[in-house]
Amino acid sequence: MANKPNQVSDQLVTWSELEGKVVLITGASSGFGWDFSINLAKAGCKIIAAARRLDRLETLCNLINKSSSFNTPLAMPLELDISADSSVIEAAVQKAWTAFGHIDVLINNAGIRGSTSTTLQLSNEEWNNVFKINLDGTWLCSKYVASRMRDAGIGGSIINISSIYGVNRVVGVGSLAYSSSKAAMHTLTTVMALEFGIHNIRVNAIAPALFRSEITKELYQKKWLRRVMDKTIPQPFFYDATVDPSLTELIRYLILDSTKYVTGNVFIVDGGHTLAGVPIWSSL
């Protein structure tokens, strides 16, 4: 029995397993993508920060590399518009692959909310644009990264950043295109997990609730927001938080090799917002 604590400690997972993992993050120029990049770099991951705004990416990568204790750069910027043609996206993925010799993890974080137009007001152009970015971009990035993981025989992890608006029975007026694209992302996640499993590639999605970001800037300006969220979320609403450890720690968990049996899931991070019976509207 004296050796039991040591035997247990040998089984415990530490974040040191993340060191050296190569992570491609789309939409890294702000919001979740920015925070994910910094958080994973602190764990020793090598970051390929991708987005349209190259100047912002260069600022992010300089911040990471200057604060790193490693002798070689941990982060590099990659200009990528995921609404571009498939050939452009494939070329960007190839550039990302050669940056550090391979890719272990893809985080499909880039996305847009679109306007709050109702179904009858929504234009064909906006519908197509939301799906082009939120769904087509996620599919194409996953396709080109996964094909290289397969050919290299290394396996990997794909993490799709979705939304609680893609969860069954969570609805919002004026969110038709956004909600539909995120619901489709959940199906995309499960089907890819089913197909990629044979190549040792796991695919999961994370559906967060509301956090501060560029995509929610206008909503956070509404005076009623805090009062409503405090009344409708069982856990305290993190009004000033841009990202929550519940998200960053979950990201780390899904990267670990020890989670190779975790695939095809949608992890909801919402403080209980989507629980049945909540909110109690009479309390508003």
From TrEMBL:
GO terms for molecular function: oxidoreductase activity, acting on the CH-OH group of donors, NAD or NADP as acceptor. SUPFAM superfamilies: NAD(P)-binding Rossmann-fold domains. Pfam families: adh_short. CDD domains: SDR_c. Belongs to the short-chain dehydrogenases/reductases (SDR) family. Coiled coil: none annotated. It comes from Heracleum sosnowskyi. This is 3-oxoacyl-[acyl-carrier-protein] reductase, chloroplastic.
